[in-house]
Amino acid sequence: MFTHMKDLQFEAKPDGPDAAFARRLQEILGGKWGEMTVANQYLFQGWNCRLPGKYKDLLLDVGTEEMGHVEMISTMITRLLENAPLALSEAAEDSPMVGAIYGGSNPAHFIHGGGGALPVDSAGVPWNASFITASGNLMADFQLNVTAEAQGRLQVSRLFNMTDDPGVKQMLRFLLARDTMHQRMWLAAIEQLKEDGLEGMPVPEAFPDSKEFEDFGRTYLDFSPGNDAAEGAWASGPTPDGKGEFRYDHSPRAHAPEPVLPPGDPRLYGTNPSGPGKLASKVKSAVT
């Protein structure tokens, strides 16, 4: 059950209108790594979590906060669109600069949204629920959540350098700080899972087949010229899970011969090595 508070978590008010930047800001609202994605991702991970207590609360708390960020950014976009010119002639009357800004705006903001935010990215592509992941495995999900926050912070950082509006910058500073906290939080949650003995690395840590190929699980295969990759911590030394040592293979070999596939069913009209006539009669005989 959700309760909506009319107050925003942080102020979302620009110093002036900027329809072109409103379009860019759509990326962190409805883009792949935007707030709509992380809000729904964390909420679904929480709803799917089978462990009552701290982990479920963590996911639902952060998902709820991110939904508040959706409202903040939507509010900022709507305010950036205030008093925006609706025609190029109207924009040009003010100044050439305003005309240029008009040229960078998103027509859908006015045609579809009536001067408000939309559930789309900066290119106008609708937000897609396939962006979210809720696997039911907390270790796998928490690692993806670190990535989601890193990508989100990266995009906010880029947007920060695309505007001179002090009000917009203040909101972006807040979002950057929360993205920082959330990255640290998910990394801490990963370690907590290990300490609680719930999940480890690799994911899944437990595998029913004890004959998993251990050598392949620790060998770095170098397919590039030179051996620069051998200097990495992934090519030698202990593995992060402490269960063995990395190996480095500069000349990976094949472990199976070249595949030779049998002729296909002629009714699928593929190109077969034995010729269509001969194979067709062969299949016909077999069916008969």
Automatic annotation (TrEMBL):
Q: Where is this region: Disordered?
A: 227-288
Q: Which residues form a coiled coil?
A: none
Q: What is this protein called?
A: Manganese catalase family protein
Composition-biased stretches, type Basic and acidic residues, lie in: 242-256
Q: Which family does the record claim for this protein?
A: Belongs to the manganese catalase family.
Q: Which organism is it from?
A: Micromonospora coerulea
